[in-house]
């Protein structure tokens, strides 16, 4: 009792588990007749499953069929399940009962699976049918009443109540029918002799056999039976057994002997020779699969034995001798087919949701898969698997049903599609397997912003471009696809010098080409910056920005402009040249400006025409006009020079100016007019006043300093040098009208630097000179401007020897310096001494104009020590060191 009770507990829990499983997964059943038209109502599956109609589409409600055809479908608007394709029960299930197939309902968000069983009911759409229209039967007149003669069977494809129900025989006085049932439920008829036959009275009999089914209305089929009465034969053959049972492996090769039948006859001669054949009511399928050797009685395989189609065959064989009036005897052979693992598993993709969005959460159903194996037992058990390296998993829902779901997030940009190999393997020995590839495409989601190839762009555009000229092309890439990767370009709003950026440039929204909307001028706008945005067409749209720096390159579109010696009222400017000047005399300096930049603003000076080309030359880089030789009496007193100023552009642009030079015997003795010098048209200075005040203040300061220094030295009791007019000096500067004054102003070393400005000399402290120098500025009576001259460097000494005062002066019309070491080597007896200028030397009117031209060209001179000649300026070499006036554009 305890063991029995335990078994009942197991049964109870098993039933409870099945109930819960049914509740979790859900299962419903529908029964419909075959041959329904398309659209026929099956049931309201949404209502039967308790689903919300409004959410069927959102939850991707779909029907997955386990068959190759989609027999039914669902209307998502009302939840009605309807017939999608004609169903033929005989085609679907043949003679099997019950006839059904299964559907799987898949609902997502959350995932729910329901199993639907569709039972197909038979309708009486087939009549019983005999294989032949006539059936011949030979019966010996000696046959005793009760003898049985099997008849041909009729075939009805319908099943159940619509199948073959009975046979009817036309009225006669010798025979009646006995209806028999086979093991599979089918019926066949045997003709039973009721009254003895008399060949002499009636040698032949004709009857009609009718097969009737059980449908409503019933259907029937007929066959005519022709019976021939044979003369008596003493003995009939006898089988060893009336019933035989054998086993046969499926797929047995053709010619395989199933069984050898044996029948014996006690007659002799031809009456003892036995012939074997199928009985008249042997099914047609049996005749197609097997053959009977008429001589040996061997039953052999003729066709393909398939366990999955028919697991058991009934073979009816008759034997009769070859004598006259032979009587046939019958036996039954039951052949059981043994299953063999000869069927590969079948994989049916009943539903594939592809493409799947890349942002689909893990657990999203991708496909519903059904597998089947026609084999039985372990040979029919199937297991499925997929590779482990893909972000998908197989879940088993029902028997032989699997769902393919995502197990991780997908990224279309990394993998756009997956070829998943599904392997279905049975449990047979050896196992058979089937592989099927499932293509899963990943649809794009707008999850990537456009990316420019560079973090920023720098482009160069030559000025004077044509409006509409292409500046550059920007390219951005979006890893997404479709509309999510379609990019449009735009320029973000901004201002450039107070004007909207949209008035400067535009961008092609399709290809990112940037175009200029105006002609740019380097002199007005040298560079500007814009921001370009690339935006995709996704929803919501994503965008990214990039900065474009646009530099306007200079073009040689500005000719040089001569800022000095500008003609006044159509009259060429004039300069005077003393006849007594030597070669190298600075007559004047041509100053010019060029609004361009770089090499386009680098200027060169040439002399196109001259009254006497052998007398004057112009410096290529500085524009200084100097005498080539000393003037003589026969030289003309009036010279016309045409000066060409050209830039270094390609092609070069130029300007010309004419200058009239007048040769005079001497310059007028007039006080210097320092007020006419100016730095530029924008700067005007009363140079005379500044010069007098500056020199007076400096002279007074240094005189006081010298007096104090002399007094201190006298107090210390140091002897003074009577030959010296002045104490030890660091620098000196003097002003004179007609000749150099012997009285010099003594300056202390104060790291002085000299700058020419507005026709005046300005002394600025710079701290750039490495040693002390003497500067002497002399104003001649003939000069109307300021003249400036630099002399050799000085070193502190106690006195200056009188006998060296007449030594040769180191004089230059520019700036000069003499190395202290060289001076010491040449004059060992006098460490340093002050050199006075040649009293015949004066700063000419041209030299005064030179200072003006330097300033008007915005040139700034910087004292520097250089070991070589500078192409941008000029230098005067007095010793191993040089003082250079460098030209630099402000």
Automatic annotation (TrEMBL):
GO cellular component, one term: plasma membrane
Keyword DNA-binding assigned: no
Main location: membrane
Cadherin domain span: 31-130, 131-239, 240-347, 348-452, 453-562, 576-674
Protein's cellular compartments: Cell membrane
Transmembrane portions of the chain: 687-712
Span of the signal peptide: 1-26
Membrane topology value: Single-pass type I membrane protein
Cross-referenced PANTHER family: CADHERIN-87A, PROTOCADHERIN-10
Protein name per Swiss-Prot or TrEMBL: Protocadherin gamma-C3
